[in-house]
Specification:
Helices cover 32% and strands 25% of the residues. With 158 residues, it is an alpha+beta fold. It has one domain: minor pseudopilin epsh fold (3-Layer(bab) Sandwich). The strands form 3 sheets. Strands 3-2-1-7 form a 4-stranded antiparallel sheet, with helices on one face. A hairpin with a 5-residue loop joins β5 and β6. The radius of gyration is 26 Å and the shape is rod-shaped.
């Protein structure tokens, strides 16, 4: 008689292991993609916060003998000098947002007279502003993952 060795791995066992591994890999890929979108929104929010704080600092220091502000567009942030945003001003500093957009930038800030606008302007010496509001940033591929930033009348950015 022939004795059959049963210590090997069957093809069914290998198939089960492959199915389990593919399920784990697909769940990991989805989680990683969601994490990347969240990080993009957080980075854009932090970049906007840094730009707003920089405009406030420049206004407080009366840099270049003027006040400073930030203009919002759907896909970019612009640091500008002066009492209003001028698109053709060569001293504007633009930051293009990568993979994220600003939700309704034209309604982000109050204009100090009961209306809404896309600019925030900081006063000389004090760094305060009349342009308060909330800015919402979202990943283009995941509009529900919104990150917000508040600008207070004191000039603080939260």
């Amino acid at each position: 008689m022939f004795w059959k060795d049963k210590s090997g791995v069957s093809s069914i066992e290998i198939l089960i292991v492959l199915v389990v591994m593919s399920i784990i890999a697909s769940l990991s890929a989805v989680s990683y993609g969601n994490w990347q979108k969240d990080v993009q929104a957080i980075n854009a929010r932090d970049e906007l916060r840094a730009t707003l704080v920089r405009a406030q600092q420049l206004s407080t220091a009366v840099a270049m003998d003027d006040q400073w502000g930030v203009h919002l567009e759907e896909d970019r942030i612009v640091l500008f000098k002066g009492s209003f945003y001028n698109q053709s001003e060569p001293e504007n500093i633009e930051h293009e947002l990568q993979g994220v957009n600003i939700l309704d930038p034209t309604n982000s800030f109050t204009d100090g007279a009961g209306g809404r606008q896309e600019d925030v302007l900081f006063y000389k010496f004090t760094g305060m502003t009349a342009n308060t509001g909330t800015v919402s940033i979202y990943p283009i591929s995941e509009p529900a993952a919104v990150k917000t930033l508040d600008v207070l009348a004191t000039g603080h950015v939260e």
